[in-house]
Amino acid sequence: MNNSLKVLISREEIKETVLKLAEKIRSDYADKMPLLICVLKGSSVFLADLIRALDIPLEVEFVRASSYGSGTESSGKMKLVQGLKSAIKNRHVIVIEDIVDTGQTLFSLMAYLKKKKPASLKLCALADKPSRRKVPVNIDYLGFTVPNKFIVGYGIDFNEQYRYLPDICIIE
Ligand code: IMP
Ligand code: MG
After folding, report:
1. Which residues are catalytic?
2. How many whole angstroms from 150 Cα to the centroid of ligand 2?
3. b (16+ CB within 10 A) / e for 61-87
4. Is the overall model pTM greater than 0.90, yes or no?
Protein backbone atom coordinates (compact mmCIF):
# COMPACT_ATOMS: atom_id res chain seq x y z
CA MET A 1 0.00 0.00 0.00
CA ASN A 2 1.89 3.10 -1.17
CA ASN A 3 -0.79 5.76 -0.93
CA SER A 4 0.15 8.95 0.88
CA LEU A 5 -2.13 10.23 3.64
CA LYS A 6 -2.50 13.78 4.92
CA VAL A 7 -4.59 14.62 7.99
CA LEU A 8 -7.57 16.78 7.01
CA ILE A 9 -9.57 16.61 10.25
CA SER A 10 -7.85 15.60 13.46
CA ARG A 11 -9.29 13.22 16.05
CA GLU A 12 -9.65 16.19 18.46
CA GLU A 13 -11.71 18.15 15.92
CA ILE A 14 -13.84 15.08 15.23
CA LYS A 15 -14.49 14.58 18.93
CA GLU A 16 -15.50 18.22 19.42
CA THR A 17 -17.82 18.13 16.41
CA VAL A 18 -19.46 14.84 17.43
CA LEU A 19 -20.18 16.35 20.86
CA LYS A 20 -21.75 19.43 19.25
CA LEU A 21 -23.90 17.31 16.93
CA ALA A 22 -24.98 15.18 19.87
CA GLU A 23 -26.00 18.24 21.85
CA LYS A 24 -28.25 19.44 19.02
CA ILE A 25 -29.78 16.04 18.41
CA ARG A 26 -30.30 15.50 22.13
CA SER A 27 -32.26 18.71 22.51
CA ASP A 28 -34.44 17.78 19.51
CA TYR A 29 -35.04 14.13 20.44
CA ALA A 30 -34.62 13.77 24.21
CA ASP A 31 -38.11 12.33 24.76
CA LYS A 32 -38.74 10.82 21.31
CA MET A 33 -36.85 7.50 21.44
CA PRO A 34 -35.35 8.10 17.99
CA LEU A 35 -34.35 5.25 15.69
CA LEU A 36 -30.90 5.86 14.27
CA ILE A 37 -30.36 4.10 10.96
CA CYS A 38 -26.67 3.63 10.32
CA VAL A 39 -25.58 3.26 6.71
CA LEU A 40 -22.92 0.54 6.75
CA LYS A 41 -20.04 0.24 6.77
CA GLY A 42 -18.50 3.71 6.74
CA SER A 43 -20.79 5.26 9.37
CA SER A 44 -20.20 2.63 12.04
CA VAL A 45 -17.42 4.45 13.89
CA PHE A 46 -19.35 7.73 13.76
CA LEU A 47 -22.51 6.00 15.07
CA ALA A 48 -20.61 4.39 17.93
CA ASP A 49 -19.24 7.73 19.13
CA LEU A 50 -22.45 9.65 18.45
CA ILE A 51 -24.80 7.41 20.45
CA ARG A 52 -22.52 7.50 23.48
CA ALA A 53 -22.30 11.28 23.27
CA LEU A 54 -26.09 11.48 22.83
CA ASP A 55 -26.81 9.67 26.05
CA ILE A 56 -30.61 9.57 25.57
CA PRO A 57 -32.91 6.56 25.05
CA LEU A 58 -32.67 5.51 21.40
CA GLU A 59 -32.57 2.48 19.15
CA VAL A 60 -30.24 1.62 16.28
CA GLU A 61 -30.78 -0.15 12.99
CA PHE A 62 -28.42 -0.88 10.11
CA VAL A 63 -28.77 -0.81 6.35
CA ARG A 64 -26.13 -1.40 3.76
CA ALA A 65 -26.29 0.54 0.53
CA SER A 66 -23.92 -0.12 -2.27
CA SER A 67 -23.29 2.53 -4.89
CA TYR A 68 -19.53 2.45 -5.05
CA GLY A 69 -17.93 -0.66 -6.45
CA SER A 70 -14.25 -0.54 -5.79
CA GLY A 71 -12.36 2.62 -6.60
CA THR A 72 -13.26 6.23 -6.02
CA GLU A 73 -16.05 6.93 -8.51
CA SER A 74 -19.73 6.43 -7.73
CA SER A 75 -21.58 4.11 -10.09
CA GLY A 76 -24.65 6.32 -9.65
CA LYS A 77 -26.97 3.52 -8.61
CA MET A 78 -28.03 2.74 -5.09
CA LYS A 79 -28.72 -0.84 -4.14
CA LEU A 80 -29.76 -1.95 -0.67
CA VAL A 81 -27.51 -4.89 0.03
CA GLN A 82 -28.95 -5.19 3.54
CA GLY A 83 -32.38 -3.74 4.14
CA LEU A 84 -34.26 -2.80 7.30
CA LYS A 85 -34.93 -5.49 9.86
CA SER A 86 -37.54 -3.54 11.82
CA ALA A 87 -40.57 -1.37 11.05
CA ILE A 88 -40.05 2.39 11.04
CA LYS A 89 -43.69 3.45 10.71
CA ASN A 90 -44.45 6.25 13.20
CA ARG A 91 -40.85 6.28 14.45
CA HIS A 92 -38.63 9.34 14.64
CA VAL A 93 -35.88 8.27 12.26
CA ILE A 94 -32.42 9.78 11.92
CA VAL A 95 -30.22 8.40 9.14
CA ILE A 96 -26.53 8.36 10.06
CA GLU A 97 -24.21 8.64 7.06
CA ASP A 98 -20.45 9.05 6.80
CA ILE A 99 -20.22 11.25 3.72
CA VAL A 100 -22.60 12.71 1.16
CA ASP A 101 -20.85 12.94 -2.18
CA THR A 102 -22.92 12.93 -5.40
CA GLY A 103 -25.95 12.52 -3.14
CA GLN A 104 -27.32 9.56 -5.07
CA THR A 105 -27.14 7.06 -2.23
CA LEU A 106 -28.93 9.30 0.24
CA PHE A 107 -31.41 10.67 -2.28
CA SER A 108 -32.58 7.12 -2.98
CA LEU A 109 -32.36 5.93 0.61
CA MET A 110 -34.35 8.86 2.03
CA ALA A 111 -37.07 8.34 -0.61
CA TYR A 112 -37.20 4.62 0.22
CA LEU A 113 -37.51 5.32 3.96
CA LYS A 114 -40.07 8.08 3.50
CA LYS A 115 -42.42 5.59 1.85
CA LYS A 116 -42.43 3.59 5.06
CA LYS A 117 -44.16 6.50 6.82
CA PRO A 118 -41.88 7.38 9.72
CA ALA A 119 -43.18 10.08 12.12
CA SER A 120 -40.17 12.15 11.09
CA LEU A 121 -37.10 11.59 8.94
CA LYS A 122 -33.82 13.50 9.27
CA LEU A 123 -30.31 13.07 8.03
CA CYS A 124 -27.13 13.39 10.06
CA ALA A 125 -23.91 13.25 8.05
CA LEU A 126 -20.37 13.42 9.33
CA ALA A 127 -19.08 14.97 6.10
CA ASP A 128 -20.43 16.70 3.02
CA LYS A 129 -18.65 17.10 -0.31
CA PRO A 130 -21.02 19.64 -1.94
CA SER A 131 -18.79 20.25 -4.96
CA ARG A 132 -19.69 16.78 -6.24
CA ARG A 133 -23.46 16.90 -5.75
CA LYS A 134 -25.60 15.60 -8.64
CA VAL A 135 -28.94 15.28 -6.86
CA PRO A 136 -30.24 17.40 -3.96
CA VAL A 137 -29.90 16.06 -0.43
CA ASN A 138 -30.88 18.02 2.65
CA ILE A 139 -28.50 17.42 5.57
CA ASP A 140 -30.19 18.29 8.87
CA TYR A 141 -27.16 17.70 11.10
CA LEU A 142 -23.76 18.15 9.45
CA GLY A 143 -20.29 17.66 10.91
CA PHE A 144 -17.85 18.91 8.27
CA THR A 145 -17.81 20.28 4.76
CA VAL A 146 -14.87 18.71 2.92
CA PRO A 147 -13.08 19.63 -0.34
CA ASN A 148 -13.30 17.56 -3.51
CA LYS A 149 -10.70 15.01 -2.38
CA PHE A 150 -11.01 11.36 -1.49
CA ILE A 151 -11.03 10.96 2.28
CA VAL A 152 -10.42 7.96 4.52
CA GLY A 153 -10.32 7.17 8.23
CA TYR A 154 -12.73 7.26 11.16
CA GLY A 155 -14.66 4.41 9.53
CA ILE A 156 -14.37 5.68 5.96
CA ASP A 157 -12.51 3.43 3.52
CA PHE A 158 -10.69 3.22 0.25
CA ASN A 159 -11.19 -0.31 -1.10
CA GLU A 160 -11.97 -1.49 2.46
CA GLN A 161 -8.68 -0.10 3.79
CA TYR A 162 -7.91 2.69 6.29
CA ARG A 163 -11.15 2.54 8.30
CA TYR A 164 -9.12 2.22 11.52
CA LEU A 165 -7.40 5.62 11.22
CA PRO A 166 -8.42 7.88 14.13
CA ASP A 167 -8.15 11.05 11.99
CA ILE A 168 -9.88 11.83 8.71
CA CYS A 169 -7.18 11.93 6.04
CA ILE A 170 -6.91 12.83 2.38
CA ILE A 171 -5.53 9.96 0.33
CA GLU A 172 -3.43 10.51 -2.76
P1 IMP B 1 -22.88 9.28 -3.12
O2 IMP B 1 -24.01 8.36 -3.45
O3 IMP B 1 -22.08 9.66 -4.32
O4 IMP B 1 -23.29 10.49 -2.32
O5 IMP B 1 -21.84 8.43 -2.30
C6 IMP B 1 -22.00 8.21 -0.98
C7 IMP B 1 -21.07 7.12 -0.50
O8 IMP B 1 -19.87 7.01 -1.27
C9 IMP B 1 -20.61 7.46 0.89
O10 IMP B 1 -21.52 7.00 1.84
C11 IMP B 1 -19.28 6.78 0.97
O12 IMP B 1 -19.46 5.43 1.35
C13 IMP B 1 -18.75 6.84 -0.43
N14 IMP B 1 -17.83 7.99 -0.59
C15 IMP B 1 -18.06 9.18 -1.15
N16 IMP B 1 -17.00 9.99 -1.07
C17 IMP B 1 -16.06 9.28 -0.42
C18 IMP B 1 -14.72 9.59 0.01
O19 IMP B 1 -14.16 10.68 -0.18
N20 IMP B 1 -14.06 8.59 0.66
C21 IMP B 1 -14.63 7.37 0.90
N22 IMP B 1 -15.87 7.05 0.55
C23 IMP B 1 -16.58 8.00 -0.11
MG1 MG C 1 -21.49 5.50 3.18
Report:
1. 101
2. 13
3. bbbebebbeeeeebeeebeeeeebeee
4. yes
